[in-house]
Write a structure and sequence with these properties.
Helix content is 37%, strand content 18%. The protein is α+β, with helices and mostly antiparallel strands. The chain has a single domain, classed as Cathepsin B, Chain A, CATH 3.90.70. Strands 1, 2, 3, 4, 5, 6 and 7 form a seven-stranded antiparallel sheet that branches. Strand 4 and strand 5 form a beta hairpin. Helix 2 crosses helix 3. It is globular and about 45 Å long. The protein starts with a helix and ends with a strand.
């Protein structure tokens, strides 16, 4: 009996070592969903500046309000977009398209929230793992690759999307897509969303060359 117990212990340790060496992960739940509040980047359907290019701000506001447990209304969200744009003009000299690193800097500068980082060369599985942990994802996108029928044609060249869950039963990510008033809990097929992830490369003409990068915002 003693020998058998020793053998079982060795088998258990060997299996744990195998997991550590190979990176084998425990199975994720079939579905994850985070109740992140929704905000359209043009809360009152005024699709001119600054709202036309406020996808970064809208995604940030949704994410931060969620991780802080704060309510979000159309009125408060609209004012926060304007305040954040004004902050950028004063601190950075303008209201520009932002890449993933710049979005992280804005969150740290404006909200003083540090539990946020950029992840490069991510996979679909990586995104699902973060969502299963309760973390929110903001992803810079080549917007026209998403094929959202509710965008004004032909859709935004550059866009940002908030990931709030996934569903393996339908192979879909659950998002808050601030680019349309119908964007609450909007679903994209895993591969469609993943293929559209492209960080802002500095110009619209080069959007297809943008790297795979997402922003992970950890809950408190």
């Amino acid at each position: 009996m003693h020998v058998l117990m020793l053998e079982l212990r060795e088998m258990r340790f060997s299996f744990l070592a195998f997991i550590l060496m190979t990176g084998l992960a425990l199975a994720l739940p079939i579905k994850a969903y985070l109740p992140v509040p929704f905000l359209c980047q043009a809360p009152y359907a005024v699709w001119k500046q600054p709202w036309q290019d406020a996808c970064e701000e809208a995604c940030i506001i949704m994410a931060v309000r969620y991780v802080k447990g704060e309510p979000l209304t159309r009125a408060s969200g609209n004012q926060e977009i304007l305040d954040m744009v004004d902050f950028q003009i004063k601190k950075y000299g303008g209201h520009y398209d932002l890449n993933a690193e710049q979005i992280v800097k804005l969150v740290k500068d404006y909200y003083k929230y540090d539990k946020i980082e950029v992840r490069h060369d991510i996979t679909i599985q990586d995104i699902k793992e973060e969502l299963a942990k309760g973390n929110v994802i903001i992803a810079p996108m080549a917007g026209r690759l998403l094929g959202n029928p509710y965008y004004t044609p032909p859709g935004p060249v550059y866009h940002n999307l908030l990931f709030k869950g996934y569903d393996d039963r339908s192979n879909e990510f659950i998002t808050n897509d601030c680019g349309t008033k119908r964007g609450r809990n909007y679903r994209y097929q895993y591969q469609v969303a993943y293929n559209a992830i492209h960080d802002w490369p500095g110009s619209k003409a080069a959007i297809a060359s943008g790297k795979k990068a997402v922003i992970v915002i950890e809950s408190r």
